[in-house]
Amino acid sequence: MAQLEGYYFSAALSCIFLVSCLLFSAFSRALREPYMDEIFHLPQAQRYCEGRFSPAQWDPMITTLPGLYLVSVGVVKPASWIFGWSEHVVCSIGMLRFVNLLFSVGNFYLLYLLFRKVQPRNKAMSSIQRILSTLTLAVFPILYFFNFLYYTDAGSVFFTLFAYLMCLYGNHKTSALLGFCGFMFRQTNVIWVVFCAGHIIAHKLTEAWKTELQKKKDERLPPIKGPLSEFSKVLQFLLVYAISFKNLSVLFLLTWPYILLVFVFCTFIVVNGGIVIGDRSNHEACLHFPQLFYFLSFTLLFSFPHLLSPTKIKVFLCLVWKRRVQFALITLVSVFFVWKFTYVHQYLLADNRHYTFYVWKRVFQRYEVVKYLLVPMYIFAGWTIADSLRSKSVFWNLMFFVCLVTSTVPQKLLEFRYFILPYIIYRLNIPLPSIPRLVCELGFYAVVNFMTFYIFLNKTFHWPDNQDIQRFMW
Q1: pTM, two decimal places
Q2: Phi and psi at residue 15, to the nearest 5°
Q3: How far apart are CA 243 and CA 231, in angstroms?
Q4: DSSP code of 430?
Q5: Per residue in 261-303, pLDDT tens?
Q6: Quick one: pLDDT at residue 17?
Q7: Are 453 and 125 in contact (CB under 8 A)?
Q8: What is the pLDDT of residues 96-146, one digit of tens each?
Q9: Is there a contact between 161 and 393 (Cβ–Cβ < 8 Å)?
């Protein structure tokens, strides 16, 4: 089976790389000039290619650190030395975009390794399930689309997944170093470095919790029933664990590389005067709680073969009826969050090249009541996502939820690219779905990708005051 799995992996990687190369060729023919945010990223990378690293050469409209440009120079410059290519060829738009295609190959391999590490290998069929899961996440529509443009997403995902993999293997110094590389691509990636540290802490807490439960079982103490009682029991355990110097010292020795990186991040914020560099006026943090609801809906849509079924809906409705008071309170709180904390970024209303523009304008903006009517769907999405993570410990779920909230809620702009990393980490950690469900998911992604690429390449339009070709995109 191990040998067969190797053949399956090689075949899947070869097929996706071939398809990606064909799509890359189509993109290169259609887009000979920088498009969207590439008008900032590509010239900056080309300045780095020419050796102009001075801060005076920095484009103030760029809000991320120069990780993408530094890695790009490290990849393309050796080509000029090895093959004798000119600077014009090496630092061309096509060559710089190709760096992200290389990152996509790395992401495929990392996803496969992560599935092998995260998911238990106790079934003969799990090898096919791992390959299909890897292939599916590799063509996840939001991430896959930006593999063909010179954006930070592919490299950001690569270094963050690499850091997560090293964390799972217990190589925490390397994990923190890779997390720093991810931070250089996008500052908010530091949250997922914290998640790696949280994974270690959750593992230690789970071990101590099991020991505590076994001790109570040996003492034959009566079990505490009810969700509130269980919550108070866990909270009491955490307080007792946290006041132990021995426990804290063990956690510190395990997580100090991540703590050091967080210290570097905090120093950066103090020196820089904020998390954003460059244009800060359009990237202000706020408490945008509905962003969490949007992520839950997003996850429900893209994982519907695993999260949506008549049985799940029936179980959810029965649970709502059984715990009416609790769900009524959750609904009221959610409605309040939607009412008081819904923000609309000017980019969302001004740029008709993004799909989110049409969703907001034709649904949310046209019918004010829609955002409240969707609250039950948000609650169902949250419940079914939490239910799919039952195999994880309560402490792992807590760490993931904290990182999810931290990465989504402060964002004022509704941008699907912000959901890529939390979605991938979520999808990696649910139990391996059955092959029919995976095939359904892969087919859905293929259809979405086909429509997205077709519309982007063929359904162009012009703005009244601009002759440049405009295209629809995520």
Answers
A1: 0.93
A2: -65, -45
A3: 19
A4: S
A5: 999 999 999 998 888 887 777 778 889 999 999 999 999 999 9
A6: 95
A7: no
A8: 999 999 999 999 999 999 999 998 766 556 888 999 999 999 999 999 999
A9: no
Dist CA 291 CA 344 (whole Å):
11
Which amino acid, one-letter code, is at 415?
E
| For the ranges 27-36, 204-213, 214-223, the one whose mean pLDDT is highest | 27-36
The sign of the CA dihedral 307, 309, 313, 315 is negative
Please state, in angstroms and rounded to a whole number, the distance separating the CA atoms of residues 354 and 227.
Answer: 43
Q: Average pLDDT in the 201-229 region?
A: 72
- Give residue 57's identity as a one-letter amino acid code: Q
- Residue 240's pLDDT is what? 84
Q: Which helix (H) or strand (E) holds 462?
A: strand 461-463
Q: What share of the chain is helix, strand, coil (3-state, %, to 5)?
A: 75, 0, 25
Measure the CA–CA gap between 397 and 346, rounded to whole angstroms.
Answer: 34
335-339: list long-range contacts, CB under 8 Å, 24+ apart.
335/372, 335/375, 337/289, 337/290, 337/293, 338/289, 338/290, 338/293, 338/371, 338/372, 338/375, 339/372
Give the pair of three-digit tokens for residue 194: 């914290």
**Helix or strand (DSSP H, E) at 466:** strand 466-470
- Look at the chain and count its residues: 474
Residue 470, amino acid: Q
CB of 414 closer than 8 Å to CB of 294: yes
Amino acid in the structure at residue 14: S
Tokens of 471: 């295209």
Tell the burial category of 433 from Cβ atoms under 10 Å away from its Cβ (0-12, 13-18, 19+): buried
DSSP string for residues in 116-174:
HHHS---STTHHHHHHHHHHHHHT-HHHHHGGGTT-SHHHHHHHHHHHHHHHHTT-HHH
Compute the distance between CA of residue 77 and CA of residue 38 in angstroms, rounded to an integer: 20
pLDDT tens digits for 407-465?
Answer: 999 999 899 999 999 999 999 999 999 999 999 999 999 999 999 999 999 999 988 88
State how far the Cα of 374 lies from the Cα of 369, in Å rounded to an integer.
Answer: 9
Q: What is the mean pLDDT of residues 171-191?
A: 95
Residue 146 one-letter amino acid: F
Residue whose tokens read 């391999």: 109
Amino acid letter for position 288: H
Tokens of 3: 């040998």
| Distance of alpha carbon 280 from alpha carbon 300, whole angstroms | 32
CB 221: neighbour CB atoms within 10 A? Answer: 9
- DSSP for 186-236, please give it: -GGGHHHHHHHHHHHHHHHHHHHHHHHHHHHHHTTPPPP-SHHHHHHHHHH
